[in-house]
Amino acid sequence: MTIEKQLPSTRTTELDSICLKAEVIPVLAIARIEDAVPLATALVEGGLTVLEVTLRTDCALDAIRRINEALPQASVGVGTVLTPAQYRQAEQVGADFVVTPGTTEALYRYGVTSSVPMLPGVATVSELMTGWQYGYRRFKFFPAEASGGVKALKAFAGPIPDARFCPTGGIGINNAEDYLALKNVMCVGGSWLTPKSLVDAEDWDAIRSLAREAAERFHH
């Protein structure tokens, strides 16, 4: 049996259905656990129902658990997953999907066996080909702007036209549209929707407004 056949096409379908819910996925680094639910609620009320919570903070896993309980209608992904052990933690807190900044053979192997779909991070065609070999068809392109941005993604479409991407890194309200105009881009990820100053001030109304602006501007 080839590696490729181990990964059911349902995994691609699952990621597609998640990414089709919103063209913009807010990337959250939650420093205070008490911010988790109000922050996520503001984004969801603004119309962004797919969230990525990164494992860059100590309370991230607890935050994901709380968001899942409070907002069952949201799709919550776990970002900055670096190891199979962290992937398992994401499964345990009920993640809908997992996102990695880059990808190792160990993560690809684990992802093939997991019931939680992975959006593996790639920055080059070689990395993309490795994921392809494992049966992956949907990828995070990171760091997007630093890795060639829109031009790089256009070039990727030549040799591997069936790959689809969620670019993240250096994307904001001013350039998101350039990415979303590409055929091989499903959605974009960004932290511009949750500025630290607004989160620190607990200004959930302002964050709801930013989410609403993005949801309306980049609607499918």
From TrEMBL:
Pfam family, one: Aldolase
Catalytic reaction annotation: 2-dehydro-3-deoxy-6-phospho-D-gluconate = D-glyceraldehyde 3-phosphate + pyruvate
Pathway entry: Carbohydrate acid metabolism; 2-dehydro-3-deoxy-D-gluconate degradation; D-glyceraldehyde 3-phosphate and pyruvate from 2-dehydro-3-deoxy-D-gluconate: step 2/2
Enzyme Commission number: 4.1.2.14
Keywords annotated in UniProt: Carbohydrate metabolism, Lyase, Schiff base
InterPro entries: Aldlse_KDPG_KHG (IPR000887), Aldolase_TIM (IPR013785), KDPG/KHG_AS_1 (IPR031337), KDPG/KHG_AS_2 (IPR031338)
The keyword Transcription belongs to this UniProt entry's keyword annotation: no
Family from the record: Belongs to the KHG/KDPG aldolase family.
Subunit structure: Homotrimer.
Protein name per Swiss-Prot or TrEMBL: 2-dehydro-3-deoxy-phosphogluconate aldolase
Organismal lineage: Bacteria, Pseudomonadati, Pseudomonadota, Gammaproteobacteria, Oceanospirillales
